Amino acid sequence: MKIEFQVENAENYLISVAAEEDTHVKMGMWVCKLVCLTPIQIAHVENNAMVALKDGLQIPHYISYVESVSLSNSICFGFYDVVFSNWKGKIKVISSMEKQSSGKSYLLNHLSGSLLDVIGGRCTDGVWMTITIGEDGDGQGDNRYLYVFLDFDGLDSFERSEQEDMLLSVLNVAVSNLTIFNKKDFHLDKDTESAFSRFQSGINLLK
């Protein structure tokens, strides 16, 4: 009887531990999804140059970087860093690019459930990032994906030069698994042709 009592207690203990761990996992996932609602700006362009940001702000002048490695070590994404550092599954990057005021941010909000700014006129400055967790099948193991959504500033804007448009296109080409062109119709116009030309210029720079 003594042995049976110990075994029963051990089983109850394991069940309680498993339930507690499951509660922690669910709470952690809830916090993760809450954090992911708020986008963060990761870069912008000015004076014909791409400017990376640290925690959504300008990198302080006292932080020096002369090469890409030191620059990458200086870049942080705020609370998103916690998600990235603890994520063990697969990651896919989805971006959106088109001319200004074409509904790019609105589309990404529907895809990701985030709160990217949506107003008339120019509402995206540079590049903004938000993430969401997608599940396939039972949502366990290899079936879970972390989707990174990048909202790029609209092309052909009078506020930016052609060089700055090309820099945004280069970044898009370099990091995206999928780029969405939000077209309200199905014909190719001059704006779309111009956007693809900038993408091609970016690809040539990466070769």
From TrEMBL:
Superkingdom per UniProt: Eukaryota
Gene3D superfamilies hit by this protein: P-loop containing nucleotide triphosphate hydrolases
GO molecular function terms attached to this record: GTP binding
Coiled-coil portions: none
SUPFAM superfamilies with a match to the protein in the record: P-loop containing nucleoside triphosphate hydrolases
PANTHER family to which the protein is assigned, alphabetical: URG4-RELATED, VWFA DOMAIN-CONTAINING PROTEIN
Protein name: VLIG-type G domain-containing protein
Natural source organism: Taxus chinensis (Chinese yew)
Lineage: Eukaryota, Viridiplantae, Streptophyta, Embryophyta, Tracheophyta
